[in-house]
Amino acid sequence: MAVVICAPRAFVVQSSNNSTTAPATNLNLDHPSMVWRSSNLSSVQITVQLPAGSWDTVCLSGTNLRATDTIRIRAAATAAATTSAPTYDSTAVPAFSGAANGGGNTSLVLTPSVRTETFIRIDITSTGNPATYVEARRLIIGKRIEEDGIDLNAEHTFEDNSQRTEYRNFETVDPYDTKTSWKFSIGYVKEASYWSNWFPLLRDVGTKKGLLFIPDSQSVYLQSEAVFGRITSSAKGSPVSSDYYKLELYVREI
């Protein structure tokens, strides 16, 4: 069991299979209605370029993929080399495992070591998808932070911000999607991890940027537990001993 948090790095789309109204550039945006859709189910791929730096996590969030579909991640120093001579190849892996989430699934690839390639190609096979296209809300590529797990007093909540207007003897509702959120703490973060990993991450994302939060990367319910969201209030760290810190976070789905 490991908790995973990853902030997405910005990228430039080099090529993709996409419809004209839902381009792959939307995968750079933290907006739930700005999605990428492939134009068909034939040769579905996205190739992106990252600035120089490191990464070890690739995730497609809010997809319409099924457990029987596959994704393949390849990386290289040039776009052409991602197919001709990749220096990283995940091979085709299931889009996800475990129970599906009707609100959108999460395809997650965690590389066993840190990568520095700047070109990444994602190939998707979704033969017979009833939607006739592949859809995703966000592409997260970045360097993850992993800890042993969240504390047992975590709260998983459902937030419905639908607008209700009361009249005499009846009520009207302007409906909005119900969002999930996690309020949790991580009780024993080593001092080195707190200052080297968490401090720069939390200072950068604040409450303005999105991040991927997975409370248990091995859970059969990962699809429902995972959240791409924002920290909704100030994150807090406090020392609990000479070598450990306690972190408190509240992450709400975008």
What does this structure look like?
The two termini are 25 Å apart. This protein has two domains: 3-146, Galactose-binding domain-like (Jelly Rolls), CATH 2.60.120; 147-253, no CATH class. It is globular. It contains three helices and 21 strands. It is mainly beta. The protein is 9% helix and 46% strand. The relative contact order is 0.21. It has helices spanning 81-84, 191-205, 222-225, and strands at residues 3-6, 12-16, 36-37, 44-49, 55-63, 70-76, 88-89, 93-94, 105-115, 119-125, 135-136, 138-142, 145-147, 155-160, 163-167, 170-174, 178-190, 211-214, 227-231, 236-239, 244-253. Strands 1, 13, 14, 17, 18, 19, 20 and 21 form an eight-stranded antiparallel beta sheet that branches. Strands 2, 4, 6, 7, 8 and 10 form a six-stranded antiparallel beta sheet that branches. A three-stranded antiparallel beta sheet has the order 9-5-12. The longest helix is centred in the last third of the chain and has 15 residues, at 191-205.
Defining key terms:
46% strand; globular; 254 residues; Jelly Rolls
Encode the helix/strand succession as letters: EEEEEEHEEEEEEEEEEEHEHEEE
Write down the Rg: 19 Å
Which sheet architecture does the biggest sheet show?
8 strands, antiparallel
**Outline, from the CA principal axes?**
globular
Q: Output the CATH topology of the largest domain.
A: Jelly Rolls
Within CATH, the superfamily of the largest domain carries the name Galactose-binding domain-like
Specify the number of helices: 3
User: Helicity level, as a percent range?
Assistant: under 10%
Give the strand content. Answer: over 45%
